[in-house]
Amino acid sequence: MLITHARLADGRDVDVRIDGESIAAVEPAGSLSADGDERELDADGRLLLPGAIDAHVHFREPGYSHKETWETGSKSAAAGGVTTVVDQPNTSPPTVDGDAFDEKVELAKKSLVDYGISGGVTESWDPDSLFERPLFALGEVFLADSTGDMGIDADLFSDAVARAADAGVTVSVHAEDAELFDESARDRDAGGDGRDADAGLWSAFRTAGAEAAAVERALEVGAESAASIHIAHTSTPEGVDAASEAGATCEVTPHHLLLSRENLDELGTYGRMNPPLRSEERREAIYERVADGTVDIVATDHAPHTREEKETDLWNAPSGVPGVETMLPLLLNEAREGRLTYERVRDLTAANPACIFDLPQKGRVDAGRDADLVLVDTGKSRAIRGDDLHGNCEWTPFEDFAGVFPDVTLRRGDVVYDPAGETGAISGVFGDADGANVRT
After folding, report:
1. Is 60 annotated as a binding residue?
2. Which residues have a catalytic role annotated?
């Protein structure tokens, strides 16, 4: 394929030639012409981005396929311009030994997009067999329970970080200190059963201080073993600053970037996640750090649950929200409105995660890299609707937010999403490319 007259995030107008799975050439617009059977797509000045890398998803297989599957999750990813995902270990069985890893890889072969598989840590984990596999990372390592009840104690965390350091594997940390949760929040539930509780009590329960303390502890343990530490879904400016000052990396989710406790009256239990939404003041401080480069990446913590599961009382509703399909569209709309630059969106979603997690073939529109590409018309946005999304749960915390969605998504040169059919490559919206493990 030859893509002509595309605009890159840095403002250059280019032609891009694709040969097989790779980008063969990137030249000034108008300098390349189609050869032989080469299909030509005139971008007509639309923005061409490297495919996004979502370094934090929960595609729920095995064990919870009613929430999401590799097929539905990867369709949602492709429709949102995400061409690589990294799945986390809290499935059933959890990905804590070689056999569980192999089982997940077999399921992941249904993916339309590329994927990485992270191993996890529990009391019964088998690091010897786990580290024999091509792990993407050790993570999400939980310092407090969330979905899957995989929280571990301080001694096991230290041992796991040391083992990962020896194996040269990055440790992605869910940083919350359960000992600093505010149990008095439950006492402020007037009914006592969570049915009529203010949704903000979940944020009051899992305190900002609990995250900040856990980030500090994770960084200390990482330093002791010279481990590579990545702080997942950082929800506080204190956590971001601590990671930055220690030379570690961190991610922020779209929901912590764009939502706060002020949205909980409308969201109710649909807005329960771990870590929880914070104050509007903290959200604004997080946004500043995303915009100025202090935050390394945006990743979704895509954690779908069904409406039936969410529509229960506050204390028993599962934590998590979907997000893989809306991350890039939301950030592109922020850039469209002038609050971020398109270069910053590229770095947050593609260039930086490729660098941090050692994916040299991904993250940039450069010759020799994988042809993971997203073509978008930045002049067009549309309202996000849960019913229009392609995941299993069919809802979103960003209902009615504006998003700039892809016109075409390519993964290693294959068209995996093409709603208008303008490439002539497929019949229908989605392609049939098989995703590949980026660590094999």
Report:
1. yes
2. 301
d(CA 90, CA 62): 10
Do the annotations mark residue 316 as ligand-binding? no
Tens-digit pLDDT profile for residues 295-309: 999 999 999 999 999
- The reply to whether 136 sits in an annotated binding site is no
Q: CATH number of the domain that 206 lies in? A: 3.20.20.140
Strand pairing report for 40-42 and 47-50: unpaired
Contact between 415 and 79 under an 8 Å Cβ cutoff? The reply is no
Question: Which of 438, 437, 410 has the alpha carbon at shortest distance from 426?
Answer: 410
pTM, whole model, 2 decimals?
0.96
Asked whether residue 433 is assigned to any structural domain, the reply reads no
Q: Are residues 39 and 75 in the same domain?
A: no
The reply, when asked if residue 174 is annotated as ligand binding, is yes
What does residue 48 show for φ and ψ, rounded to 5 degrees? Answer: -115, 120
Please provide residue 215's backbone torsions phi and psi, each rounded to the nearest 5 degrees. -60, -45
pLDDT digits (tens, 9 = 90+) for 200-237: 899 999 999 999 999 999 999 999 999 999 999 999 99
Place of tokens 């929430």: 67
Domain count, the chain: 2
- Provide the domain limits for residue 384: 2-47+368-391+401-417
Residue linked to tokens 């001694």: 155
What sign for the dihedral angle of Cα 322, 324, 325, 326?
positive
Q: Prior bond to 360 cis, omega within 30?
A: no
For residue 406, with 0-12 CB atoms within 10 Å meaning exposed, 13-18 middle and 19 or more buried, which class applies? Answer: buried
Closest CA to 13 of 37, 45, 35, 49: 45
What DSSP line would sit under 314-376, residue for residue?
TTTSPP-B--TTTHHHHHHHHHHTTSS-HHHHHIIIIIHHHHHTT-TTSSS--TTSB--EEEE
Tokens of 58: 């929960």
* 302 marked among binding-site residues: no
